[in-house]
Amino acid sequence: MVVGSDISRYPNTPRPTCRGYLHKRTQSAILKGWRKRWFVLKHSGHLHYYKHKKDEGKCKPLEITKLEGAEIGVDTSLGKPFVFKCIPQSGSRIFYFLVSLQAINGVLTLQNHVWVDVTLHNTALPPLAIKNPECLGLLHQLDRGRDVWVQHYCILKDGCLYFYATLRSTPAQGGLYLQGYIVSEQALGSKRSVIELKPPSEEFKTFYLCAENMNENKRWITALKASINKWLPLHQAIQDFMNRPLEETRM
Asked: Pseudo-torsion of CA 181, 131, 110, 224, nearest 10°?
């Protein structure tokens, strides 16, 4: 799970709290499993959670956890991807959270996120109607099933790469959510320079792209890395939030 870094905030304006659904591992010895809950991270460093999103502001939170000094990181002990754990400084409880993700055609899709609605809206637009693209131009994608390179006109915007058949095609043929992907330049077969997009988990596909020449490849690699780096893993975002100087969290 990744959250957008708030790169446009004003210097004296506190960052917005994190809100969203997470699956929380139950602590009961009788009922074990994961329950979907609505979580809110406050500027004070306290994590509130509710049964439903609509309960925020209307009902008391089911629990409030102080995160100051907490240890937060990715967890692999439960055998599930996209799990992170939180160990508060006070108390002996360990919280495990599972992020809601699903794979559709090998592409990582985030649920319950307004950003997804924006990207889906963009797919219905002509390529040049997407405002302020971070990179655009022709790219060839390797179709490994047929061992051929298929040409697309591509638009990069806010961590999403949109694929069009041509410059004048509408709608987009599809989009690739790039959060967590690692971008590198590789040699592949007869091609000396290919863009490799390696996913954050083996559940998803590795993509190979190639521009018209090596300079174009480098231009795309630089843009792809910059676009991906706008996003942070959720556990890192929470940890960064907790590590900020006190004056940044004042209202």
From this structure: 0
**Cis amide linkage into residue 171, ω under 30° from 0:** yes
Angle (CA) 119 234 197, round 5°: 55
CA distances from 78 to 3, 25, 82, 166 (A): 23, 10, 10, 45
Rg (CA), the chain: 21
Which residues on adjacent β-strands are paired with residue 101?
110
148's CB contacts (< 8 A; 6+ apart) are 142
Give the contacts of 99 (CB within 8 A, at least 6 positions apart): 1, 22, 23, 82, 83, 84, 234
Burial of 218 (0-12, 13-18, 19+ CB in 10 A): middle
H runs (alpha helix) in the chain:
114-123, 214-228, 234-243
The 10s digit of each residue's pLDDT in 181-233 is: 999 999 998 888 999 999 887 767 899 999 999 999 999 999 999 999 887 66
Please state the pTM of the whole predicted model.
Answer: 0.55
